[in-house]
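User: Fold this; tokens only.

Assistant: Input:
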Amino acid sequence: MPTDVVFEYDADKGIVFTVDEGMLRTKEEVDHFIYLNREYFRTLGKKVWVVSNIDGLRIGTPVADYYGESVRRLVDEWVLGHVRYGTSSPSRMTVRTSYLRARIDPNIYSSKEEAVRAIERMRLAERQEPRTEDKSRVEAEG
């Protein structure tokens, strides 16, 4: 199964929707998967919210840690918040395991609608939290 990612950007919602497909068994396949994502995000030129359908994605045990660390770097660089959804048990299990090993919250939901609601909650929480510089000012003044 070749690795592929289908992207759709909903400018009104400010969310990139992806459909992730492939069996990642080697570091080269993981690198290719990350490359596809990074190049798409570069075309947008900004950090984005991401909702990914993972039903077609499998991560081989030998590269699970490498995949998790690679995703962590990608998320740090290009993603404001990332949630996944799917109904395939093998996909959910392999993605969850890789994310937990990399100390990333897996945020896996059963449906696209649930995943979008999770992004909306993340946005709301972000708006309600003072920025780091504002926190420092409040602490200095307090």
